[in-house]
Amino acid sequence: MNSTLRSRCAKAIGAGALSVALLSAGTAGAFAASPSAASPRPKPIMTGTAKPTGTETAKPTTTSTAKPTKSGSPMANGAITARVSKAQVKPGQSVTFTGRAKGVKVGTKVVLLHMHNGKWTPLKSSTVLKNGSSYSLVTKFNNKGKEQLRVMAGKVVSPTVVVTVK
Questions:
Q1: Are 122 and 111 in contact, with CB atoms under 8 Å apart?
Q2: Which long-range contacts (CB under 8 A, 24 or more apart) does 62-68 make?
């Protein structure tokens, strides 16, 4: 009976020691494999504003509204592209403008604008947006020089395109 008790105690102690060894080895292995063990932890950075201590008074914040840019282009929700068939033409030669619009209804009038005396003025060339929101405009330039042009559909304006008339 005495040997049986000793045998059971030895087995229990051995199993406990083995469990402790396995747990500590597993924990050490997991700790070594974790990325936080390989590099020191980053310090916290304050990204917000400090909380009031109660002695200050709250000041209202101001918000600004969208304003047109200096070039005078109107702001709108949408976009339109403008591609020119030829960047250099001879006087009287036809030039085709093509592009697509986003956020503009099909059937909206599309007008070709050019810079004249510091202002964007419409040319006689116009069309409407077709299904698929695409357009095509054809025009001729008679005066030599560089023409700054853009396309406007509703309140949406394309980036400026330059055509040189030689």
A1: yes
A2: none
| Amino acid in the structure at residue 79 | A
pLDDT at 31: 55
- Lowest mean pLDDT across 18-27, 32-41, 130-139: 32-41
The CA distances from residue 56 to 50, 53, 82, in Å, are 12, 7, 54
CA-based nearest residue to 159, from 71, 96, 91 = 71
DSSP code string of 51-91: PP-SSS-------------TT-PPP-S-EE--EES-SEE-T
The distance from CA 39 to its chain's CA centroid, rounded to whole angstroms, is 33
Mean pLDDT of all residues in the chain? Answer: 76
Interatomic CA distance for residues 156 and 79, integer angstroms: 6
Q: pTM score, two decimals?
A: 0.53
- Written as one letter, the residue type at 82 is A
- Compute the distance between CA of residue 45 and CA of residue 121 in angstroms, rounded to an integer: 53
Q: Per DSSP, which regions of the chain are E strands?
A: 79-80, 83-84, 88-89, 94-102, 109-116, 119-128, 134-140, 145-153, 156-157, 161-165
